[in-house]
Amino acid sequence: MNQGKESTKSEIMTALLQELEKTPLKKITIQQIAAKAGISKQTFYNHFRDKEELICAVYEHIIIPDFDLDAFPESFGQSYLRTLNAMKEYGRFMRQALLLEGQNDLKSYITSHCEQFDLAYHTHLYEDELPPDLRLATIYHANASSAMTFSWILGGFASSPQDMVKLVCAMRALGMDEKIAKAYKLDD
User: Fold this and answer.
1) What is the pLDDT of residue 102?
2) Taking residues 58-79, what's their average pLDDT?
3) If you placed Cys at 96, which of 8, 25, 51, 91 could pair as Cys (CB 3.0 to 4.6 Å)?
């Protein structure tokens, strides 16, 4: 994408986060976001289908930039820690977005993205197509990680991001091939 289009998308994401400081996410309108970004509603729709797609874009580009489906983190633990810190920094956004229900809600997006990413990441680590048992374990761990993260966010970040990383990495290594489990070993 060209730089101008990316810049406008970034301004729209920033506008949503700024508007969230005074208005609950559920009540923020496209008109409010467009006005805050200094664009027309049509320009908004040139970049995002709806508010739900914008919410997912904020999550993807601001909260989890280390977990791109086309590039894998050098250290899962460090990348996950950066992600958890971003979730905590943008806690108001994360809590409110997770509570929204709908066809394209953030919970569904996160769960789907985590599953897709993990399948690709584990296939990369395994250096071959995943056998059925590792594929099933990967899907299970992706869904369990998502649920644990949702609980952590909605529970008010009761434990530290570092403790969450340890817990999730230990769980993700269970039942995995050595090549995959090694990616979840933390350097203490």
Assistant:
1) 80
2) 93
3) 25
CA distance 39 to 52: 18
d(CA 110, CA 129) in angstroms, rounded, equals 24
Which pLDDT score, from 0 to 100, does residue 188 have? 60
* Residue 101: strand, helix, or coil: coil
Maximum distance among all alpha carbons in the chain? 53
Which amino acid type is present at position 80?
Y
Axis-axis angle for helices 132-154, 106-126 (nearest 10): 140
Q: Which residues contact 15 (CB under 8 A, 6 or more apart)?
A: 33, 34, 36, 37
CA dihedral 44, 47, 53, 58 (to 10 degrees): -90
Tell me the CA distances in angstroms from 76 to 33, 83, 108, 122, one per residue in order.
34, 10, 22, 12
Please, are residues 173 and 181 in contact by the beta-carbon 8 Å criterion? yes
Q: Is residue 139 within 8 Å of residue 146, measured between CB atoms?
A: no
| Whether the model pTM is above 0.70 | yes
Amino acid, res. 121: Y
Query: Tens digit of pLDDT for each residue in 153-165?
Result: 999 999 999 999 9
